[in-house]
Design brief:
Elements lengths: L5 E10 L11 E10 L9 E4 L8 E13 L2 E10 L4 E8 L5 E9 L7 E10 L2 E9 L15 E8 L4 E4 L3 E2 L7 E7 L5 E6 L25 E6 L2 E6 L8 E10 L4 E4 L6 E8 L4 E5 L3 E6 L2 E6 L8 E5 L5 E7 L2 E6 L4 E6 L8 E6 L2 E8 L1
Antiparallel strand pairs: 1-2, 2-3, 4-5, 5-6, 6-7, 8-9, 9-10, 10-11, 10-12, 13-14, 14-15, 15-16, 17-28, 18-27, 19-24, 19-28, 20-21, 20-27, 21-22, 22-23, 24-25, 25-26
């Protein structure tokens, strides 16, 4: 937003008819700009960049512009795939948001980081440069990278007038089944907020029953990003607490014997767990959703409600707290105040009022209805 005008940058994707692979031939990836004063009425489309404006070693997969201003200069980062199938990002500069010139390929072209980097986003956290992106083509490694496409970040630093972006280790931002293409913004309070798409393109192992009702996907709740020891923590924004209705249910439970609580009136709720002297636990809710921790591994497991989603997990030293946001067809689970996060779609046949707990030690359970 500049001078009370909203600038919308997006990729105009054109596929030509004929015999094409749509990687090296037959596709246009045009960077388009439209503007609006009110978010309702829009200007005519303006083409800012065409295929010929990208480096010669790029395939026809260049897309997903993210624009920001820094020291009076505008920058645009784009995700790209090279002609030899390596993911990277492109950086462009402008003085007026309309005329853009190529600046650098600051990161990418690695052998083990996928063939395409989608939806790039660069921003500052604790004075460090972060690149958040969605690489396609990474192989699974144990509990890591189990979705068809990945999504994560690397912490680093721009150097040499942004000609180079040195990056550390790639870390998945969400360990669940349904999180992709996140974008961040800085709000009026100076917080870095991320919202992700609760879906993954080309996922064939699970389907969503909503398609039969002619709708598909949703977005995550907004999450504040905080950098601790070069790791990003995701914290549900405080404003979500205004959704809470009435008084909370709050009780301390021994996990040494199985406890069953009848506390849910609907599938929309917030649920908090604080564990004490707990080495392992199992939480059962919403018919067939299991959240468990044992032997240094936290697991999210779904039965038939997952529609093909089975299990996602992360190795973690301990779980001191869990915070669960449940909507009619989604769960967002935050471990240790956002140290790890699991996002998934879930489709129950009915409302299950029961919460079943077991394990060791004690847990304080607090629940609010939405």
């Amino acid at each position: 937003v500049k001078d009370d005008t909203i600038y919308f940058f997006y990729t105009g994707n054109v596929k030509h008819k004929g015999e094409h692979d749509y990687i090296l031939t037959g596709r246009e990836q045009n960077v388009i700009l439209v503007t609006s004063k009110d978010g309702i009425n829009f200007s005519e489309k303006k083409v800012l960049l065409r295929n010929t404006d990208f480096p010669d070693d790029m395939s026809l997969h260049v897309r997903d512009p993210k624009v920001w201003e820094e020291d009076g200069v505008y920058y645009m980062v784009l995700g790209a795939r090279t002609t030899d199938d390596k993911g990277c990002i492109l950086l462009y500069k402008s003085n007026d948001l309309y005329n853009w010139e190529f600046h650098s390929v600051p990161a990418g072209k690695l052998d083990d980081m996928g063939y395409m980097w989608e939806c790039p986003d660069t921003f500052k956290l604790s004075d460090k440069d972060v690149l958040m992106f969605s690489p396609q083509g990474m192989e699974a490694e144990g509990y890591k990278y189990n979705n068809v496409y990945q999504c994560g970040y690397a912490v680093g630093s721009f150097e040499d007038d942004k000609k180079k972006l040195n990056l550390g280790e790639f870390v998945e931002i969400d360990r669940g089944f349904d999180f992709y293409a996140p974008q961040t913004f800085e709000d009026s309070k100076g917080r870095r907020i991320v919202i992700g798409w609760m879906g993954v393109p080309d996922a064939i192992e699970h389907k969503n029953p909503t398609i039969d009702n002619f709708w598909q996907h949703q977005l995550t709740i907004p999450r504040e990003l905080v950098l601790k020891n070069n790791k990003i923590y995701q914290i549900p924004i405080a404003e979500l607490e205004t959704l809470r209705k009435g008084n909370s249910f709050k009780k301390e439970i021994s996990l040494n014997e199985v406890a069953i609580l009848d506390i849910f009136e609907s599938n929309t709720f917030e649920l908090n767990f604080n564990f004490k002297e707990c080495d392992e636990f199992k939480i059962e809710l919403r018919e067939d959703c299991n959240l468990s921790f044992s032997n240094g591994v936290f697991k999210l497991q779904l039965g038939k409600s997952g529609y093909g989603r089975n299990m996602r997990a992360v190795e973690i030293n301990n779980v001191k707290s869990l915070r669960v946001f449940s909507d009619n067809s989604s769960l967002e689970v935050f471990l240790n105040e956002g140290e790890e996060v699991f996002t998934t779609r879930i489709y129950n046949d009915k409302i299950d009022s029961k919460l079943k707990l077991s394990g060791s030690g004690t847990v304080e359970v607090e629940k609010w209805a939405f």
